[in-house]
Each structure stands twice: as C-alpha cells, then as structure tokens.
Design brief:
It is a multi-pass membrane protein. One of its GO terms (cellular component) is plasma membrane. Helices cover about 75% and strands about 0% of the residues. By secondary structure, it is mostly helical. It has one domain (about 20-280): Orthogonal Bundle (ABC transporter involved in vitamin B12 uptake, BtuC), CATH 1.10.3470.
C-alpha cells in the first residue's frame, strides 16, 4: 500500500509540475527546450515499445520519425491539406510503411535485423536528401503551419504548443502503461525473454514482433509530425543515423523496458546537453565514458537500477520483519537444566 501511495504521489506531483511549468519558467528558451524534449520523449517511448518490449533493435526508427515529419510538411505546404487531416495521414503512412518494412525485416534475426533496419533508415535519408523536387533536398521544407485551431483552442503560441505536446505525451505514456500490463504486452515480453519458448506455447513470434514494430513506427511518426509543426522547418538531418543513435542513448540511459525510463533519459540528456553547450563537440567525449559506466554498473538504466535496488531493499526488509515474528527458541542448556 505504501508503494502504491508513493507512486501515486509521485505521478500527481509530476503532473502538477508539468501543468504549471509555463507559469513557473519565465524564459521562453527554456520552455522551447522542454517542449522539444517532450517531443523526443514521445519518439523514445515508441522506440521502447519495440526494443524494450519485444527486444528487436531497429535502427530505422529515426527514418519513421522523418516520414511523419515530411508527410505533414508536404501535405500542408505543397498539397494544401488541412493540418489535422495531414497529421492523421502522417501517422497512418508511418505505420503502413513500418508494416511493409517489418514484413521483410523480421525474416532476419539478431544483428542481421539491426543491420537491415539501419540500411532502411539510410535509404529513407537518401530519398529525403536526393529527391530535390519533392522534399527540397538540402534546402529543406520551410513554412510548415502551426496546428490548426480546434474550436476555441488555438496553437499559435509557445505555451499552447507546449500543452499540445504534453497532451500527446500523456496519451503515449498511458498507451505504453496499458500495453505493458495487458495480455498483449505480456506476450511481447514472452517473445523478448525466449522466442523458442514462446513458440512452444503457441505464440506467433513474427506476428507479435511485427505488431510491436508497427506500433513503434506509429509513435515515431507522431513525434515527427509534432516536431515539424513545432519547428516549422525540416531538413534531411532529421533522418540521420546520428539522431537515431541519440534516441537509443536516451532509452539506454533511462532504462530499456521500463515505463518511466524514456522520459527520464530524454529529459536528463537534453538538460545535460544544454548545460554543456560551452564544450561544443567535446561534450561527446564526456558522454561516452558516462554511457559506458552506466551500461556496466546499471545495465537496466537509471530507472531500472533504482527499481531493482528498491526491490532488494524491500525484500530484505520483509525478510527481517518475517523473522522477527517467528517464536524465539529456548536455548538447549536451559532445557537440559529443567530436565
């Protein structure tokens, strides 16, 4: 009961802070950076649904992020679509292309799967970079509109866009939580633990891997569409493999397979990156050893390590409590003396 109350109090406190953040933080720059971090967190949550739940390391995740961004940008700027219609199309197209890619990619396993998806991600980058007549090439795509109003709600200010991104992040976390504690989520974890054992009990591993991959691509497209509408300019760099590895780094540091890991890892690394801007490119020299040490001593990330430490401490406390309730034995020499 104490654990439930602690978790609930922590969630309530976090929810209150995020709601009041635009009124607490007076700097527009800080609010801009936080909004960007929340968009990255949505993408990392999608990454976690594939890597953390099923255990398939896809290196094409950033490519689907770019598909969502460019779909929204092209449909609104060049085709003149309504924003929310283009927004929905970006999500559907990201999931559909993910389905087609997954049909082929899951014929491979292990590091072959990772190499294949990395090639897919690089092909997406080349298409964006070289198809100049469609995507604008290295010039990028300019003038992507802000989200269109929904009734009395408008999204033309930084604060309103922050709340919009926060809403989609809350929905993403809720979906991840429900998925993790559902029968489908437990099926994903069974496939992650042992594909052979999962097949032995009648689970279709390829079907579940493909479903997890499509869900991951859907949330990558969601983050990409939000990014495009927030920044209003996109270029080929949003499909670069470097950005994909940064997302993977956020997930590893936060905790793969944990519910709070993607958010904790993303916010922490974005904060560190902004704090160490004076080091410029040299900050990666600092991030490298920190990441190596974290993988060695906390292989399950910050959230996973804290959770394991709490569980061990709780187990020791329960063991001591149960031992204290056992009846005390009478020493053997006193028994002999009575006889």
């Amino acid at each position: 009961m104490d654990k439930v109350m602690n978790i609930r109090n922590g969630v309530i406190l976090t929810f209150i802070i995020t709601l009041l953040l635009p009124f607490i933080v007076q700097s527009q720059y800080v609010l801009h950076v936080v909004t960007m971090a929340l968009i990255w967190a949505i993408s990392v949550y999608g990454y976690n649904m594939n890597v953390g739940y099923v255990g398939s390391l896809s290196l094409a995740h950033v490519g689907f992020f770019a598909i969502g961004a460019y779909t929204l940008g092209l449909l609104t700027v060049k085709a003149g679509w309504n924003f929310w219609l283009a927004f929905m199309a970006a999500l559907v197209l990201s999931a559909a292309i993910g389905f087609l890619v997954g049909l082929v990619s899951f014929r491979t396993k292990g590091h072959f799967f990772a190499i294949y998806t990395m090639c897919v991600g690089f092909i997406i980058y080349l298409i964006i970079d070289k198809w100049d007549s469609l995507t604008g090439g290295v010039r990028g795509l300019i003038g992507i509109p802000h989200p269109a109003p929904i009734g009395p709600l408008t999204f033309d200010t930084l604060t309103s866009q922050y709340y919009l991104v926060l809403f989609f992040l809350a929905v993403t976390i809720l979906v991840a939580k429900r998925l993790l504690h559902s029968l489908l989520g437990r099926t994903f974890l069974a496939v992650n633990n042992s594909e052979e054992l999962a097949r032995a009990i009648g689970i279709s591993t390829r079907k579940n891997q493909l479903l997890s991959f499509v869900i991951s691509c859907f949330f990558a497209g969601l983050a990409g569409a939000l990014y495009a509408s927030f920044v209003r300019f996109i270029g080929p760099d949003i499909a670069s493999i470097v950005l994909g590895f940064e997302m993977l780094m956020y997930l590893i540091i936060g905790g793969i397979g944990t519910l709070a890991g993607p958010l904790v890892g993303t916010l922490l690394m974005v904060w560190l990156t902004q704090s160490l801007q004076f080091l410029q490119d040299s900050r990666m020299v600092l991030f490298g050893p920190v990441l190596v040490l974290l993988v060695i001593f906390y292989p399950q990330g910050i959230v996973g390590g804290i959770t394991n430490h709490w569980r061990k401490r709780r187990k020791r406390s329960d063991l001591k409590h149960s031992e204290s309730k056992l009846p005390k034995q009478v020493p053997s020499h006193r028994v002999n003396a009575r006889r």
